[in-house]
Write a structure and sequence with these properties.
mainly alpha, about 60% helix
């Protein structure tokens, strides 16, 4: 399920997003009006809670109103529609992202910390991954997160045109890994089948329906033979007392660590090219 931000009224949405100096939009409305206790911030907080707990599909003005003990109609005084609400939710939740990294004179350490923090942020709010990057929200917290990444990359000394592309490369990489982990966590509940059950059933059948698999895909088999085995029976193996981790999640986290290292190695190579006389 992909949703697109920026589908509400453009002027109203941007006005609400950048409302820091407009107290009347924070619910402090002078004179007659809706009963106290309801505000843009309260509505956005409730909407985020709905999406965190029940997913994007459960988000509606009615669901948010019920969480606040109000009708959906009561929300429209503050937020015109679900379109504007989605923009506000997306930007508000980005306020959680760290904008200061102490002791990051080492650009590599700074970018590593940023990537790990951003990965965990998306896993706390997996619905954010369903908001398409094709239409940015253009809110203050979204920009703050972007500015942080640019600042960390600027420490590499690379030229602006390279930094611009690296921002996209790193952002998409982290979102991609986060998406895989989030889906791995959701798969068992959505399908009623654990990772172990899925792998055992299909890996057994693969040898039956494709007995020439190794001959047909020699490069793939060579890679698998030379890497760690993937036993389906231990797909969700974990230490005693710890919650079982889906096999695909463990794979995605290893992919994240290795892939991030390769990307940072590439940045280091680019720095070397620009500093070599």
């Amino acid at each position: 399920m992909v949703v697109f931000a920026g589908q509400g009224d453009a002027r109203r949405s941007m006005s609400l997003l950048w409302r820091a100096d407009r107290p009347e939009q924070r619910g402090r409305r002078p004179g007659p009006g809706p009963r106290p206790g309801l505000s843009v911030d309260a509505i956005v907080t409730a909407a985020i809670a709905v999406a965190d707990e029940d997913g994007m599909a459960a988000l509606s003005m009615r669901a948010v109103g019920e969480r606040l003990g109000r009708t959906a109609m009561a929300l429209y005084t503050y937020v015109p529609s679900k379109g504007e609400l989605l923009d506000l939710m997306y930007d508000a939740v980005h306020a959680e992202l760290t904008t200061e990294y102490e002791g990051t004179g080492n650009w590599r350490a700074g970018l590593t910390d940023w990537a790990r923090d951003t990965l965990e942020f998306h896993l706390r709010h997996p619905w954010v991954l369903q908001v398409s990057q094709a239409r940015p929200v253009l809110g203050p917290h979204e920009y703050a997160g972007l500015d942080t990444l640019v600042r960390l990359l600027t420490a590499t000394g690379l030229e602006a045109h390279l930094l611009r592309r690296l921002v996209g490369t790193l952002s998409h990489f982290v979102r991609g890994c986060a998406g895989t982990v989030a889906e791995a966590r959701q798969a068992a509940a959505a399908t009623g089948e654990s990772d172990e059950e899925w792998w055992l059933a299909r890996s057994a059948l693969l040898g039956e329906v494709a007995p020439d698999f190794a001959d047909r895909y020699p490069s793939l088999m060579a890679m698998e033979t030379g890497s760690a085995p993937q036993p389906p029976a231990s797909a969700s193996a974990s230490a005693p007392g710890e919650e079982a981790v889906p096999y695909l999640e463990r794979e995605a986290r290893e992919m994240f660590d290795v892939g991030l290292g390769v990307l940072l190695d590439g940045i280091e190579t680019a720095i070397g090219r620009t500093t070599t006389p």
